[in-house]
Hints:
The complex is a heterodimer.
Chain A: H1 2-24, H2 26-32, H3 35-38, E1 42-43, E2 48-49, H4 52-83, H5 86-101, H6 104-130, H7 150-174, H8 178-186, H9 191-220, H10 223-229, H11 246-253, H12 260-298
Antiparallel strand pairs in A: 1-2
Helix pairs in contact in A: 1-12, 2-12, 4-7, 4-9, 4-11, 5-7, 6-7, 6-10, 7-9, 7-10, 8-9, 9-12, 11-12
Chain B: H1 2-27, E1 31-36, H2 41-53, E2 58-62, H3 66-75, E3 80-83, H4 89-94, E4 97-112, E5 122-123, H5 125-132, H6 142-145, E6 159-163, H7 168-180, H8 182-186, E7 200-202, H9 204-214, E8 218-223, H10 224-229, E9 233-234, E10 236-238, E11 244-245, H11 249-258, E12 283-291, H12 297-313, H13 315-320, H14 328-341
Parallel strand pairs in B: 1-2, 1-3, 5-10, 6-7, 6-8
Antiparallel strand pairs in B: 3-12, 4-8, 4-9, 4-12, 10-11
Helix pairs in contact in B: 5-7
Amino acid sequence: xxxxxxxxxxxxxxxxxxxxxxxxxxxxxxxxxxxxxxxxxxxxxxxxxxxxxxxxxxxxxxxxxxxxxxxxxxxxxxxxxxxxxxxxxxxxxxxxxxxxxxxxxxxxxxxxxxxxxxxxxxxxxxxxxxxxxxxxxxxxxxxxxxxxxxxxxxxxxxxxxxxxxxxxxxxxxxxxxxxxxxxxxxxxxxxxxxxxxxxxxxxxxxxxxxxxxxxxxxxxxxxxxxxxxxxxxxxxxxxxxxxxxxxxxxxxxxxxxxxxxxxxxxxxxxxxxxxxxxxxxxxxxxxxxxxxxxxxxxx
Amino acid sequence: xxxxxxxxxxxxxxxxxxxxxxxxxxxxxxxxxxxxxxxxxxxxxxxxxxxxxxxxxxxxxxxxxxxxxxxxxxxxxxxxxxxxxxxxxxxxxxxxxxxxxxxxxxxxxxxxxxxxxxxxxxxxxxxxxxxxxxxxxxxxxxxxxxxxxxxxxxxxxxxxxxxxxxxxxxxxxxxxxxxxxxxxxxxxxxxxxxxxxxxxxxxxxxxxxxxxxxxxxxxxxxxxxxxxxxxxxxxxxxxxxxxxxxxxxxxxxxxxxxxxxxxxxxxxxxxxxxxxxxxxxxxxxxxxxxxxxxxxxxxxxxxxxxxxxxxxxxxxxxxxxxxxxxxxxxxxxxxxxxxxxxx
Lengths: 299, 343
């Protein structure tokens, strides 16, 4: 009875938060309608608000973060369960979990004071010179080398997400029944074949769950992103240019939002973050269902 | 029964919140609360500490930003608000507020350009506006180099750093740019936040200072004290009299003295681009806002006494923190205003 009540309480709280955000943002939605989502203006003086740039910045930085974090995390997990000498597994695993305990503002400060100057001095000039001239991907990598921007923010986010994905992946990899792997070894499988044919299929749903746990963290991350993203409401294709994210915009601007429409627009932004996260998680669930159904058919 | 188990802690929690709220209301009788400008926070807290040491009441000031300070004092949740942007007399009358200046400080453009010595880069208001508008893109643009013979400027993109949050500092800065550049006035204009044409945004003075220090070839604007504490490279600016001045306590007070406070109703005066020959053009004032018919008369009077003390005795502390105390004539004007409006 109590456990059921606790579970329902979570659902109640969740919908309560969503409803109150939507209610707080109703003035913005009423004023701008669908244009609030597609609009690229964020003009405080003229009271014109559109959430497109923060949504775009949030999605792009999170995507970069996942592109970096997922392969690295799976590599770490595989190393720890399969390759690393037994005595070193415990300490490394603990070190990775400690990474998750570092407050995000520390990542932000590291990003601003150490990583951004490194990007500005070494990485971004190289990107400009080598990738910036390529036909299709060129526009992604052109721009001034200031070290602050979507690419830097995405990489910092990726580092922040790694411990979450890696520690879950390690847990589930080590839960693969030894008999399965030993059979694969007995059949002469290579390490790569064991990973791709046994370990990953067996742990598929848990791994996707871990990835989306990491994505959830990346989407909502505020402080670290605020430090390195640039907080500028500018739309640019280039990953080297500053942008804004939903969480960073709210954190930066809420205290000084002194008109009703401005405040309402920021709350509406928060509601949109809710919606974006919800959509992303739904896609993940559907993806998982589809994979499971397809596999069910082939077997 | 199960419901009871849940309900009991909840009730305890609620009643705890209730009693907390009650006690904080009760204790506000013995302390003055204020909120607003972050610009004034260092000197205000120094004054408050000194005042308390000398037997005055405790001042609880929250530096939440000018705009938030204005809305808090309008809502009557604090005894005073502090803002770097003055309100017009009609707005003051509408919200039954009185307004007076409390301290003066400077805003300085800061740069991070290799090879440029501190204070050696000279800019005019129009060039500064064009840089922030993204019209002048390179440090070795003719508009900048012609002002700076003898300074080698790199062939590098200018990275503009502005505030990402609403700010009285931004208001004063953009107010100045609007005065000196018609295209800026027609474009981004003035305000606590404007639609910045280019650049990255840092939160607070410390955010802008951090970005300028980290991004090579950048330019930003911060409060003078931040520039000093972070050993940043401030530029010289041409003032409205046509001479190039460097930011200093002297050039700030020159601006304060040349400003026409006598004819400013409710002290509604923005000091940027002041006329004096040695005046710093980006001099700013922090204003205190207080209700003329306060909810709690005792704490409101205590706040008035505190500000009178600060105006009369607080000059040294202000100077020590790189602010400029109000000129003596202005202090008198403020005191007679307080006596008339805040009885």
